[in-house]
Design goal:
globular, 21% strand, 6-stranded antiparallel β-sheet, 11 strands, 5-stranded antiparallel β-sheet, alpha+beta
Amino acid sequence: MTEIDTYDNSIYCHHAVMGEGQVVEHSHNKGQFLYTEGGVVFLKTPEKSYFLPARHYIWIPANVKHSIHPSNPEVVMRNLYFPKFDTDTVFFDKVNIYPVNDLLIELIMFTNRWNGNIFPEEEPKYSIAKAFKLILPEISQTELPLALPYPKHEKLMQIIAYLEENIAENISFKSLAEHFDISERTLARLFQKQLNMSYIQYFTILRMLTSLKLLLDDKLSVNEVALRVGYNSLPTFSNTFNKVIGVRPSEYVKNRNLLL
């Protein structure tokens, strides 16, 4: 990791198979573009847990602490680390996940021939790498909510753990409040204050992120996944998945081998 910041003005490129380990919490002075192949990657910051599936990338701004946890040893990480440019916009100031289109995949594959530092005097390589960063805001119009914030409140932490363990159950807000002996009003305030979203929003995103893992890592069918996360209606599951993830689950299954 220290090599990334050795030279302030370089663009650093690194492609690697993750193997059995994980990348412990760290930060660097350059912004990071991370795209993965071969499985799902969980990326954790002090505030949130991000879920990075195939055909998506995550942008990590400079100096943001994060750790990286692959779902299996075959995961390949493709990283580009960029210094700050005068042309940078607010796009590069926040952590976000975006879908990858065919153009960006071609550019990512083009960078596979690079490894290590790329300096400004190395033309046209440097200009191509810089253009890679400059084009990101133009082709990344749809940020996806593939992240869940961490609760700080002890009671809410217990509630979240309960939801994760019972994700196949249709747990109403009322029954959840009764189970934890808390008023619905207080519970609603906890979700909004601690997680900045409602119970329904949180549980829906949790279910969809779990669905992605089941589709991509466990290779389950769409029907099996829908049932595993509490949806008896396949159309309802498909519509919800599409709303949150940006593509229907059938498309993920159809392209699964290509994406991984």
